Amino acid sequence: MDLGKAVGVMVELDVDVLLGMYEVQATIVAVDEQFRQRIARGQVSLVYYSPRGQECISAALGAHLRAEDYLVTTYRGLHDQIAKGIPLRELVAEYLGRIAGTCGGKGGPMHVTHAASGVMVTTGIVAGGLPIANGFGVAAVLDESDRVTVVCFGDGATNNGAFHEAVNLAAVWDLPVIFVCQNNQYGEHTPIGRSMRVPTVAERAGAYGIASARVDGNDPVAMWHEVGAAVDRAREGGGPTLIDALTYRFFGHILGEDLAYQPAAEREAAIAADPVLAFRARLMSEYEVAESVLGEVDRGVAAAVDDAFTFALASPEPDISSLYTDVVAEVTV
Amino acid sequence: MAVLSFAAAINSALDVALGADPDVFLLGEDISDPGGGVYNITKGLSTKYGEHRVRDTPISESAIIGAATGAALAGKRPVAEIMIMDFLGVCLDQLANHAAKLRYMTGGQTHVPLVVRMSAGAGVQFGAQHSELLEAWLIHTPGLKVVMPSTPAAAKGLLLSAIFDDDPVVFIEPTLLYFGGAKEEVPDGDVRIPLGQARIARKGSDVTLISYGLHVHTCLAAAAQLHEAGIDAEVIDLQTLEPLDTETVFTSVKKTRRAVVVHEAVGRAGFGAELSSQIHEALFNELVEPVRRLTGPNTPVPFAKSLETAFIPTAHAVTAAATQLCATNASWA
Fold it and tell me: Which residues of chain B does A131 touch, with a Cβ-Cβ cutoff of 8 Å?
């Protein structure tokens, strides 16, 4: 499915690509639903930053990135991790701190890595991932490979010094790095308008002389085109891109918090315009996908997600002996 | 063998590493020719290996350490320079939260073969923000290795080991050794000194003087003074602070039954406190007197020559402390 060449022209999207993006979105929704329900019932205990509402961005990334391309994401990273292809069983197990998890339970929800899928770093530090993403870009340049690196972060991160240092260095070195701002309008509890004077994140790219795009992050087709353009630019040596993808998070910063900082009407409107349900409807109306086809995708997703949770919950927590391993190359501390 | 200065020995190690392994590259502020860095340590290397492998950066320490970390995760062996140790303050998130923790957080899936070089120490009247020794910050961070050489041969051998080590290593270069350190014979080529191995800088039987970096020379000067007074001091150059060669320390202190730990960093919660505690825990019944610490005072480093000189531990102070320890007859204890 190498549609990366379709850059710059509004090509008709292959229905397989569209269905692939829908499947990723549906998977994110289903995994998120299980985590929230199980946390609410007290069945599992984890710190949880729901990505619900931001699925389309990840799905578009997943549609363009190869397994060997690198992804750096944040503690709100479940959707990115699924879209980049981490096997669901190991992913859910890591979120639950189980030995079968991608990191053997030592990372947890905020520190998921699955190197085989190219998910190299999940950071719990806002903006902490951006400087590291450049390093993957440098490695690709030194190796003369066409691997690209995507780093995801929120609008809040663009007020941190690490964002500015990293975007500037990527610009100066023409690195094949795509900076994807999942602009959900809030940095933790503070709305974006109270955190920055410029109207958009996208225009911050102008300060560093790199390409940028402001896009409706809830429109998978628009996202697919913008990500494709940025990926092609990076692969062809054209340097970095800042994508300002507008979206909204349905369940606040951290699950269970007091949402008083957010107007209820604003949140309810966003949930009413659920981008995944909207895409599902659009697939039927605009792309003439039969509901039975989507129903089949939904059933497959539900089975895979059930299987992943069954697998993860059956996995034990790591043995105490692993507390002391992996600090440095030697086993001892 | 060539007779090299401290600076030339570091340059030689970098040259050997760049020549031996295409994955090795350097990054930092002003490091390319014609200058080769503010202390000329990297002079000639960008001309020899190209500016893609000896990469100048903006004054962006977070971006430097982040790029080095990402490249290391991708299989490179970056050597990052942040010029002066106090600048850790503007990149500590990248070093302590990311480089140091990634092997652990990923359950050993990834590791960070990174070296961060920096000059450090008082004595050149750079004032409070360009003179500190902050090794205690680093030793307190699991996942980092910490090296501080005292001679040209040690600098070359330890730096080569650091570059080819699979974990992040902070390599601290005493600034005064750039200017005033003695030259010595340094092996040609890739001759390494293992990390985690202390060196007996002077054999003795009455008291053990323990230090690292510049103040190994302070201890050697004190040992010469003590010799005049009939006291035979053993001097241990730790070379690597983490991992720490406690075996060499304990063997010596078991023999002499007296120890003075000397460092320039402030004493409160400094490395000397840790080492002193370890000696007491291991050898309480062997000690004739409690371990003494001679350190910088609990103040910032001052500018005025009189104050700066008073800040730095002296051979006379070491001699006085050791003489006091030796005043207690071992047979009474």
Answer: 62-63, 65-67, 69-70, 94
Across the interface, do B66 and A120 touch by the CB < 8 Å criterion? no
Q: Cis (ω within 30 of 0) for the bond into B34? A: yes
Map residue A182 onto helix, strand or coil.
strand
Q: How far is B202 from B218, CA to CA, in rounded Å?
A: 12
- Would you identify the CATH topology of the domain B199-332? Rossmann fold (3.40.50)
Determine the structural domain holding residue A99 and report its residue range: 15-324
A6 within a domain of the structure (yes/no) = no
Answer yes or no: are the C-beta atoms of B264 and B318 closer than 8 Å: no
Find the CATH number of the domain harbouring A44.
3.40.50.970
ipTM: 0.96
Q: Are A103 and B106 an interchain contact pair (Cβ–Cβ within 8 Å)?
A: yes
Residue whose C-alpha is closest to residue A98's, from A86, A84, A112, A85: A112
pLDDT tens digits, one per residue of A269-304: 999 999 999 999 999 999 999 999 999 999 999 999
Number of domains in chain A: 1
CA A246/CA A184 separation, integer angstroms: 6
B63 touches chain A (CB under 8 A): yes
Q: How far is A160 from chain B (nearest CA, A)?
A: 11
Q: Is residue A10 part of a domain?
A: no
Catalytic site includes residue B130? yes
Q: What is the domain class of B2-186 according to CATH?
A: alpha beta
Query: Which of A 145-164 lie inside 8 A of B, CB atoms?
Result: 149, 161-162
B154 CA to chain A: closest CA distance, Å? 23
Residues near A151 by beta carbon (within 8 Å), at least 6 away in sequence: A71, A72, A73, A129, A130, A132, A133, A177, A178, A179, A180
What does the pLDDT average to over B211-219? Answer: 98
